[in-house]
């Protein structure tokens, strides 16, 4: 078997077509860290490229009135939201507010959303990275989408039938949830979360040192959204993924040194992939073999060192992405500061946990691909696609051939390299996180757009590129400017998502409004009345386009006013809005939905409220007035 140091001696030639090296940002600074490589890129003639691009563009066209084949769910990056796109058209269909405040829908303003966000504990920012869809037997079931908030250590769940966030969980004992993936088999029972940063335990402000500091791997119950258990680990945690048996999850670590400075985090030539034995962890927790930390009641087990719960597989160097092949055979760790990726055979993990083989015996290939490998995705035909950040390329390579090369065969595992624009991070192929990976489309999310779009000032958009991978060659067909680093996405067939056209009246999304109305003796579907309880005033009204059921009401200055609006329209897409002028509140009310918002009545005077979502030819006439009297 070849050693790692031997790989650079006879790295495979690139497919016929010549060699070239793109200029790349930061090459001088990073080449010494990443190491030199002899790999280049396949070059097509201008005429051949133009013909191939035209052919691929014909596939991407979705005409007026036609529907896309796939839903794409994009993380909203620093915007704190999730964006819904149609693929291959790349048309934006919807934005789902999650950790942000959104004045259009009232997210972060309405009582229903504030309750989900945590009331007084809510933050005004979010940093969404990794959207993933719930699964049953390794296939997307379209029930939920989960997404992390690195900025404030949270995980959110989105109901895909209404495309609304319905749960948000603050993860205790850790900081900065970065990597997030789901249990695939038998279904998504657990949501796996990596906390990136090492912190003191307890983190009570008494010490700044690393002496008693660590981070943890967390598992949330996907239905209750409560933290089921946590595992203390050596080093830190970056990205994660799960297998197709339900037994193992794995995470990359880029700071095995536990360093606090940049140079220190690059000291070791190898860091590791930590593999978690989910069955053993769950059994220990069930048997009561755990501890708790501080005020948290979450069960915690220790996975450091020689633990029954973990194994630490050495891989080069500051690894980043961790991706499971759709055939369930391999975890692939992307080297970042090494030009290699490490292929870990999942079927060897039982023997590893039984101490029958050594840690590196699980590594069955370590192909050299280029500079800055970050993330890998798959086409379901045995090929992998890895982003090369420094080279600004995607490398298509064959897993089986990479394994043969690692075992000494003279075989070229690289199929093609394609320039992308510029510095790609995540990439994602259609259905790639499931057994159904179909190898049709690849999205590459590039961190910089530079000269690809009209200039819009010092802050540039990022660039999401769509690539046709249905044939032997990758073909770039679309550039898409995006705002605030969307980071990652997931593509699912449109038939795997079943959305409601209108709300059902017993929907749990507005259960709080129904409960309060019952206490007040109010029937939400018919009553228009005002309930006064001291300085608390509850205003109940219906709406049918183009009129509110109540067009006037009175309150006192300083009253805490809650307005409940129930949209009685039964027609799809007839959404109403409620906006109270000069009070900083607005909200969306979709058909058959009840929404509520609370505000403090301002200084005495008359204030108009109006419908701020277009609903009717007489939309402008849909309004009413609130009279604020002196207290």
UniProtKB/TrEMBL annotation:
Subcellular location(s) per record: Periplasm
InterPro entries: CcO_II-like_C, Copper_CuA, Cupredoxin, N2O_reductase_N, N2OR_C, NO_Rdtase, Nos_propeller, NOS_propeller_2
Gene, per the UniProt record: nosZ
GO terms of molecular function: nitrous-oxide reductase activity
Binding site for Cu cation Z1: 320, 375
Enzyme Commission identifier(s): 1.7.2.4
Cofactor (UniProt): Ca(2+); Cu cation
Record: residues binding Cu cation A1: 576, 611, 615, 622
Keyword Calcium: yes
Source organism: Marinobacter daepoensis
Protein name: Nitrous-oxide reductase
Pathway where it operates: Nitrogen metabolism; nitrate reduction (denitrification); dinitrogen from nitrate: step 4/4
């Amino acid at each position: 078997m070849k050693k790692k140091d031997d790989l650079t001696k006879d790295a495979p030639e690139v497919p016929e077509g010549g060699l070239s090296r793109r200029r790349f940002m930061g090459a001088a600074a990073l080449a010494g860290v990443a190491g030199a490589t002899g790999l280049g890129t396949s070059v097509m003639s201008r005429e051949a490229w133009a013909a191939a691009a035209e052919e691929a563009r014909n596939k991407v066209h979705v005409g007026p009135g036609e529907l896309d084949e796939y839903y794409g769910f994009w993380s909203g990056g620093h915007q704190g939201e999730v964006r819904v796109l149609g693929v291959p058209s790349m048309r934006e269909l919807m934005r789902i507010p999650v950790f942000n405040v959104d004045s259009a829908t009232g997210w972060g303003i309405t009582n229903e959303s504030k309750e989900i966000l945590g009331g007084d504990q809510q933050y005004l920012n979010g940093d969404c990275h990794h959207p993933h869809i719930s699964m049953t037997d390794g296939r997307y079931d379209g029930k939920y989408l989960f997404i992390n908030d690195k900025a404030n250590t949270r995980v959110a769940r989105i109901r895909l039938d209404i495309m609304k966030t319905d749960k948000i969980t603050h993860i205790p004992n850790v900081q900065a949830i970065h990597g997030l993936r789901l249990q695939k088999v038998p279904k998504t029972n657990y949501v796996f979360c990596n906390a990136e940063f090492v912190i003191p335990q307890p983190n009570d402000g008494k010490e700044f040192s690393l002496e008693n500091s660590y981070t943890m791997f967390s598992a949330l119950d996907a239905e209750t959204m409560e933290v089921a258990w946590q595992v203390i680990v050596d080093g830190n945690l970056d990205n994660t993924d799960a297998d197709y048996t339900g037994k193992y999850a794995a995470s990359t670590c880029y700071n095995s040194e536990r360093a606090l400075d940049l140079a220190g985090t690059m000291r070791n030539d190898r860091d590791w992939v930590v593999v978690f034995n989910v069955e053993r962890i769950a059994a220990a927790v069930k048997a009561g073999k755990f501890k708790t930390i501080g005020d948290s009641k979450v069960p915690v087990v220790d996975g450091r060192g020689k633990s029954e719960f973990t194994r630490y597989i050495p891989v080069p160097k500051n690894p980043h992405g961790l991706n499971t092949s759709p055939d369930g055979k391999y975890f692939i760790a992307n080297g970042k500061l090494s030009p290699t990726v490490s292929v870990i055979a999942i079927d060897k993990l039982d023997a590893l946990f039984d101490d029958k083989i050594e840690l590196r015996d699980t590594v069955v290939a370590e192909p050299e691909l280029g500079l800055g490998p970050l993330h890998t995705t798959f086409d379901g035909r045995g090929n992998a696609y890895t982003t090369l950040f420094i080279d600004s390329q995607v490398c298509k390579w064959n897993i089986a051939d990479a394994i043969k090369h690692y075992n000494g065969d003279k075989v070229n595992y690289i199929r093609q390299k394609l320039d992308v624009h510029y510095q790609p991070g995540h990439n994602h192929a259609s259905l790639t996180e499931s057994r159904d990976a179909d190898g049709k489309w690849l999205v590459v999310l590039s961190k910089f757009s530079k000269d690809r779009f009209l200039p819009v000032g010092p802050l540039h958009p990022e660039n999401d590129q769509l690539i046709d991978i249905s044939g032997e060659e990758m073909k770039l067909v679309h550039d898409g400017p995006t705002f605030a680093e969307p980071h990652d996405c997931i593509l699912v067939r449109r038939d795997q998502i079943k959305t409601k056209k209108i709300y059902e009246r017993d929907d749990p999304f507005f259960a709080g409004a129904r409960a309060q109305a019952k206490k007040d003796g109010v029937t939400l579907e018919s009553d228009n009345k005002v309930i006064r309880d001291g300085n608390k005033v509850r205003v109940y009204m219906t709406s049918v386009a183009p009129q509110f059921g109540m067009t006037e009401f009175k309150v006192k200055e300083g009253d805490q006013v809650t307005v409940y609006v129930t949209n009685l329209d039964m027609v799809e897409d007839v959404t109403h809005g409620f906006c109270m002028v000069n009070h900083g509140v607005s909200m969306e009310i979709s058909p058959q939905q009840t929404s509520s918002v609370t505000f403090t009545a301002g200084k005495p005077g008359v204030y108009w409220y109006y419908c701020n979502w277009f609903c009717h030819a007489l939309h402008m006439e849909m309004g009413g007035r609130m009279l604020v009297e002196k207290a």
